[in-house]
C-alpha cells in the first residue's frame, strides 16, 4: 500500500498540498482531529469555495471527514473530479442526501440523508485513475452508491466548484492505492515545533520555524557550514489513536545563495536514536521549496514513536541552507487491541 499523501488541512500552509485556493478559510473550533479543519463556504454566500489538490496527492482511494454546517438551497459539490472531456462529482443536496454525478448523466442518489452538525467519514474508491472505470462511495464504512465512469481524473477539488450555497467542513485527507484502512476510524494529526530539540547547532530557534502559513525569508534557521552539525525541534500535539501506520515530515527549505553547493539530510529522532536520510539532498536558489520525508510500513503503538523530534543535518562545507518552517503529520488508526495490522504501508 503506497500512501501518496495524508494531511490535516488546517495545519498546512495553503500550497503544501494545493495548486490553487478559492475562498477557503480554516476553523479552529469545529475539527475532527488536529488543529483546524478546512472551512468551505464560510462566507455564507453562494460562491465557489474549494481547495485544488496538487496531483502528488491523488490516489485511487481517498478518505476525508465531512461536517455539514448548512445545507445548500439546491445542491453543491463536496468533491469535484475534473477531466477536460467531462467531470464527475460527489454532490450534497438540499435534503441532506449525497449523489454521484457525472457530466451528461443522471445523478445516483443516496437513500438516506446526512444530518448537520455530525462528522461523517467519506471514502471515494476508484478502480483506476485513467480511462473507463468504476467508483464506489462509502459513508461511515457503508456503501451508498457505485457507478461506472467514462473517463479518468486529471485533478481533484475539495469543496464547491460552482457558485452555489452550502457550508461544510473537511478534515484529515488521506490518499492511497489500497483500501486497507477503509474499515477503521483514522486521524491525521500535525505535530509542530514548540521547543528546541537535542541538537541546536543552526542559527535561530524553533520560534523561527513554527509558523503556518510559511513566512519565507522573514524567519528561518540557517546551517553552519560544518558538515554533521544538526538542528532538531521538540514537537507539540499528539496522535489521536494508539496505532500509528505512517508519518510525513514536511518543510520549506532554501539555499542561502542562488549558487549550487548547499545540501542537507532530514532527521527524525525518537527513543534516543537518530534516523537520517540515507542520501543528502542538494538545493540551490533562495526561494523556499517543499521537501518531504515519508516513513511508511509502520504498525507501532504511539508510545514507541512519541515523543519525536524532527530536524536537519548539514552536509555541505561550501553553502548553507535555511529552514523556514516544518512539521510532521502522523496517520493513526483506531484498531482493537486484538487485531494485528501491519506492516500496512509500503513505499514504491
Structure characterization notes:
This protein is mainly β. It has two domains: 3-183, Sandwich (Jelly Rolls), CATH 2.60.120; 188-333, Jelly Rolls (Sandwich), CATH 2.60.120.260. The chain has one helix and 26 strands. Strands 16, 17, 18, 19, 20, 21, 22, 23, 24, 25 and 26 form an eleven-stranded antiparallel sheet that branches. Strands 1, 3, 4, 6, 11, 12, 13 and 15 form an eight-stranded antiparallel sheet that branches. The longest helix is centred in the last third of the chain and has 4 residues, at 302-305. The N and C termini lie close together (9 Å). The model is unreliable at 8-16 and 341-348 (pLDDT under 50).
| N-to-C span | 9 Å
List unreliable stretches of 5+ residues: 8-16, 341-348
Q: Give the overall pLDDT as a whole number.
A: 84
How many domains? The number is: 2
CATH topology of the largest domain: Jelly Rolls
Number of strands: 26
How many strands, what sense, and barrel or not for the largest sheet?
11 strands, antiparallel
Do you know the CATH architecture of the largest domain?
Sandwich
Which structural class do the helices and strands define? Answer: mainly beta
- What's the order of the H and E elements? EEEEEEEEEEEEEEEEEEEEEEEEHEE
Under CATH at level 1, the class of the largest domain stands as Mainly Beta
SS element count, helices: 1
Rg result: 21 Å
**Residue share in β-strands:** over 45%
Helix proportion range:
under 10%
- Globular, elongated, flat, extended or rod-shaped: what is the shape? elongated
